[in-house]
Amino acid sequence: MASVELRHLRYLLAVAEQGNFTRAAEELHISQPTLSQQIKQLEKTVGVQLLDRTGRTVQLTDAGVVYTEHARRALRDLAAAERAVHDVQDLTRGHLRLGVTPTFTAYLIGPLTAELRTRHPGVGLTLAETTQDRIETALLADDLDLGIAFAGAHLPGLSGIALFTETLSLVTGAERARTMPDPLPVAALQREQLALLTGDFATRGHIDEYFAQHRTTPRISVEANSIQALTEIVRRTDLATVLPDAITDDHPHLASVPLDPPLPTRTVTLLHREGAYRSAASRAFARLTRELVRVRGYAPAE
After folding, report:
1. To 10 degrees, the CA torsion angle through 123, 126, 131, 132?
2. Helix or strand or coil: residue 32?
3. Nearest-5° angle of CA 24, CA 28, CA 29?
């Protein structure tokens, strides 16, 4: 029996994802007749029909569903093997693929990247800022090596290392903060005009739950889908916001004002796929992350 080649697996997955030979051929940069011939050769090799071509879209047969699951796993494991071969233990080179939820870019990613560059300048970094569910999906698909997100119920196959406890506070201009009570009673927010993240952010849901629990309805004057925009708005106006108080560490023009009662804390976690190959760059980044959050004085994870 002829052997299955890697291109056969990639071709099959492309057709399965596109549901169409023409679009799959365009994605693969080959002709449609060549693609069809290669898939037929694969089916002949494995001795079973993998695709149902009778409908408006091409569908996997039952055998095709099973086969593509193994094909994806094989290609993922091969990619990990290639990274392992090129991994240099002394970290003179290497690469890390990191996913983070948006609030961490405002106070954590800058210092982490600076520390990585200082210690291991030969290690490259690909950074993806996205939602936690997308980070978890990407970790399982081996599209990311590590993710920084929040503790909780994760997708099966993921594990996390608790890093620190994040606290949210009222954040306002430093001068204005000095005139506010410390802590500020939550009822006083009724008199405040706020600039908050949009509902696309998990942090906004966390804040809204807090307001609802304490029967507080502040006036929301500005909603933004950018933390940088919020910090600029707060710096230049009399508006306040609610963000992780660690954001003020590198923004001397801002100050955090704790609320009474405080917002519930969240545990920040370094996520990885169970059983995944841990490159030298990945292990080094995990170590320096734990060290940096300790040096910066972030509250230990509960």
Report:
1. -30
2. helix
3. 115
DSSP string, 172-241: EEHHHHTTS-SSEEGGGGGG-EEEEE-TTSHHHHHHHHHHHHTT---EEEEEES-HHHHHHHHHHSS-BE
- Distance CA(88)–CA(94), nearest Å, equals 6
Q: What is the DSSP letter of 283?
A: H
User: To 5 degrees, how large is the angle CA 39–CA 26–CA 3?
Assistant: 25
- Give the type of residue at 136: E
Q: What is the mean pLDDT of residues 194-216?
A: 93
3-state DSSP call for residue 152? coil
- 144-190: pLDDT as tens digits: 999 999 998 999 999 999 999 999 999 999 999 999 998 999 999 99
pLDDT digits (tens, 9 = 90+) for 91-119: 778 899 999 998 999 899 999 999 999 99
Strand order in the sheet with 168-173: 241-244, 168-173, 254-257
Pairing of strands 94-100, 146-150: parallel
Partner residues linked to 149 by β-bridges? 269
